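note to self: dont lose this again. the chain is below, predicted strucutre after it. 237 aa total, dont forget to put it in the shared folder this time
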Amino acid sequence: MKKMKFFLFALAAGLLLLAPQAAEAAAAEPPVLMVEGSGRAETAPDRATISIGVVSQAKDAKAVQEENAKKATAVTRALVAGGIPEANIQTRGYYFQPLYEHPSAGHENEITGYQAENTVTVLVENIADVSRVIDLALKNGANSISSLNFGTKNTEKVRKTALNAAVNDARKKADDLAAALGKRIVGLKAVSESSYPLAERSVSSKMLMANGAVPTPIAPGMLEMSVDVHIEYYLSE
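---
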């Protein structure tokens, strides 16, 4: 028990001795300047994903299923023959449902036919091939283009460009503020960063025209990524 009391006394004494040193160290920290910086980078898209569908309707369930399967297979074969790797064609969804009499006719539960829809997502790795791929699909049985998204293969390169712009923006603000205060930056205390994913540019099905016609040429435009940084600098006394 006496040893424990002695230990606690020694610990308390040590803390009392260290307290002035800690306070002195905290007081010795240079003034801190906190700034925010933002940057963005643009890049031309170099790839695209297209949602291509085959929609079939018939009064007989088996007939609509067989017709849809036949056309969907023909579309896939045409795309592969046209240079699209099979690995770049992925089933997005398959829907099969009955069609009912219009409610206003008073026969809400009467089935009048069936509808099948098979949709695949096609990755086009050469942006110049987008129009050709859409035309090829429509000519071989597809009758629905539900979406077209433009993207890029190297998002990290775009992020680095935006990050450098954000850091440069923050440093310029810090230099201007320091000069206005009659001080200069002497060190770096902390940095934090927030990156926003590259926003893939989408073209709606309405823009692709409801009748399946392809607007030529399709203009992919530019893609943009933004980055924000929070930087804390040490200032001279």
